[in-house]
Design goal:
The structure is a homodimer. Chain A is mainly alpha-helical and about 150 residues long. Chain A has helices at about 5-20, 25-35, 40-50, 75-80, 105-125, 130-145; strands at about 55, 60-65. Chain A binds a DNA duplex (30 and 30 nucleotides) through α3 and β2.
Chain lengths: ~150, ~150
DNA sequence: ATACTTGTAACCATAACAATTACATTGTCT
DNA sequence: AGACAATGTAATTGTTATGGTTACAAGTAT
């Protein structure tokens, strides 16, 4: 299984809002860049808004970032779009047999390990900000321009 | 989304094979500890066998570990049961708009970052061996005994 | 031969996902 | 006020992974 593309789309949206900040970022416009339906964008935007990453208002066209670019890490986006619940990256079979030494302990033994592994991944995401993403994209564009 | 419990079940199975190594570990027996169907166990066992972690033979009851406990990391189990493909922990929306600076670069920008995050998680799993799991369970059992 | 076990394949119910449609709500503009 | 446009949200759909279940062929031992 794999983590929902809502995460990648969230990054895409926020990046585009920044790069197109002089324009009007309607859900329709953003959707055309992501290549999906505008309702999908609005749904994700709602999550980003709840997380305080973005300002959008009903009836008013366009979205703006609510924070500075360098203040938003990928981990913030990841949490915002709710792709993985806390301590639930790995699922554990439930109701193992309590009459077996392994069955009655496996969950408690394995959970903290899974938790460490999940945290390691999340830590890596928190080391990257949207500013890094935007810079990288601008770099790539510049390279092509030559 | 969350990573299939095949992983946790794989750990459970291997641990139990070790702890019950004086007994006969049939799929039926293992299934009763995991609390699932024996066919599910056999399917997972097939994966563990393909990965060279376990010895099982058609018609012959019982499974044995194919390696030393301390030589099997959780990452080995994780790879064996195929819960996450390489570089595919995170999914990325496909066909973003190539006419948009963000659309045409987002994949190349984001992929290496996702890859680093996934590796960090996998690294954490490779730091733990089945010997650690078995020890922890035996510790927990001993504590209860007092 | 009989009994037991592993190895597979087929099938099913469930859940998450992304896309889509539809519509109420909110705001802007004339 | 009324028309228009955008957001917010709910309902529906096709697709896919999962975990469980049944069934049975193939291998092994007594």
């Amino acid at each position: 299984m794999s983590i929902s593309s809502r995460f990648a789309v969230g990054i895409h949206i926020l990046t585009l809002i920044e790069i197109n900040k002089s324009g009007v970022n309607t859900s329709e416009y953003l959707a055309s860049s992501v290549n999906t339906n505008a309702a999908v964008i609005r749904k994700i935007m709602g999550m980003l808004k709840s997380a305080g990453l973005v300002n959008v208002r009903p009836g008013i066209a366009g979205a703006q970032l609510a924070k500075d670019l360098s203040e938003i890490t990928l981990f913030d986006v990841y949490k915002a779009v709710n792709v993985v619940q806390e301590k639930e990256l790995f699922s554990i079979h439930d109701h193992p047999n309590p009459d077996c030494p392994v069955g009655r302990n496996i969950q408690d033994t394995v959970m903290p390990i899974f938790s460490v592994a999940q945290s390691a991944m999340e830590k890596a995401l928190s080391n990257v900000t949207l500013a890094d993403i935007v810079n990288d994209i601008l770099e790539k564009e510049k390279a092509v321009g030559k």
